[in-house]
């Protein structure tokens, strides 16, 4: 028994619907990836900034410690 025109049209519509659904899912995934990349860039900038602040604090502490250590041995030698 031959299939009618309506069966062909229904299959075409279903195929089109599935293709649109795949396209929509692909666009959604692309947006998620773009957000993730943008978020990681901001996050990395924050981490670098924080690391620089920590390094600056550490260097300040090291310089103060060095001066104290330098003066201490000299005092002991003179005594």
Supply database-style keywords.
single chain, 79 residues, mainly alpha, 1 helix, 94% helix
Give structural notes.
The protein has 79 residues and is mostly helical. The chain is built from one helix and no strands. The longest helix is centred in the middle third of the chain and has 74 residues, at 5-78. The N and C termini lie far apart (116 Å).
The low-confidence runs, each spanning 5 or more residues with pLDDT under 50, are: none
Could you spell the SSE succession in H and E letters?
H
- Sketch the major β-sheet: none
Q: What fraction, in percent, of the residue positions are helical?
A: over 70%
Extended strand count: 0
* Fraction of residues in β-strands: under 5%
Structural class: mainly alpha
Radius of gyration: 34 Å
Q: DSSP helix count? A: 1
- What spatial form do the alpha-carbon principal axes imply? rod-shaped
How far is the N terminus from the C terminus?
Answer: 116 Å
The average pLDDT value, as a whole number, equals 79
List strands and helices in order, with pairings.
Elements: H1 5-78
Give a brief rundown of this model.
The protein is mostly helical and 79 residues long.
């Amino acid at each position: 028994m031959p299939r009618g025109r309506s069966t062909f049209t229904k299959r075409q519509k279903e195929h089109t619907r599935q293709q649109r659904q795949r396209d929509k899912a692909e666009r959604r995934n692309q947006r998620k990836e773009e957000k993730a990349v943008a978020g990681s860039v901001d996050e990395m900038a924050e981490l670098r900034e924080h690391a620089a602040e920590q390094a600056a604090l550490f260097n300040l502490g090291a310089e103060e410690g060095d001066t104290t250590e330098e003066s201490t041995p000299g005092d002991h030698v003179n005594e």
